[in-house]
Amino acid sequence: MREQQPGVTMYVDVQVIDINSCDPVKDMYIDLWHTNATGVYSGVVASTNGNSADKTNLQNTFLRGVTPTDEDGVAQMTSIFPGHYAGRTTHVHFIGNYGGTVLSNKTYSGGSVAHVGQFFFDQDLISSVEAVEPYSTNKQSTTLNSRDNIFKEASGNSYDPIFQYSLVGDTVEDGVFVWISVAVDMTAERDVTAVSTLTGSSAIATTGDTNTALSVTKLGGFAASLAVLAPMIFAIL
Q1: pLDDT 10s digits, 22-69
Q2: Which of 10, 77, 90, 133 has the fewest beta carbons closer than 10 A?
Q3: In this structure, what CATH number is given to the domain that contains residue 157?
Q4: Residue 102's Cα: distance from chain center in Å?
Q5: Is residue 213 one of the residues assigned to a domain?
Q6: Which GO molecular function annotation, any one, does this entry have (predicted)?
């Protein structure tokens, strides 16, 4: 998921619990994606996403990945702490897919999406990370958690969308371990639509909407780029 992106190493644990049975959910394919240290998504060419003249970014797949939960309902990934972009607080996107098929080329096809959401971070942790390079070079305006409308919505009804965390060493530069449990209604089916697909060596827009942040999931050279609410094909980490 990290590829070669510079930044504070972030070890991520996400546990999925069935809201109806309170049991861990095994074999849910967890799709996570977020921006790099300076607030840029891979797989997106848009005026609000870094250098819009760089059309090659549509082919990039950094900081996007999918992996299944284990018997304890836990999925683990290694990434970097996300940067921010104008109008949003620092966050990670999350889609939970289940019931699909793992194909011979290690892609994941079909299935149902039971959950779509975002995870957030403690404001003090965000401030600590953004004080170090390369985060400190990001000149985009910042938005606090308390000012972010999606954070406010996610925090309603006593929900807590903020990762718990622990520093790996003495400072944030040594890395951070973050974890969260999320309750999912496994009877739900969320409607999602892909806006573009990256297969083999080229990216193909499927809706013409290049202003939507994409989720790109991949392994072994195969990848699929997905809209914020839009998986079609998953490739497994």
Answers
A1: 999 999 999 999 999 999 999 888 888 898 888 888 888 899 888 999
A2: 133
A3: 2.60.130.10
A4: 21
A5: no
A6: oxidoreductase activity, acting on single donors with incorporation of molecular oxygen, incorporation of two atoms of oxygen
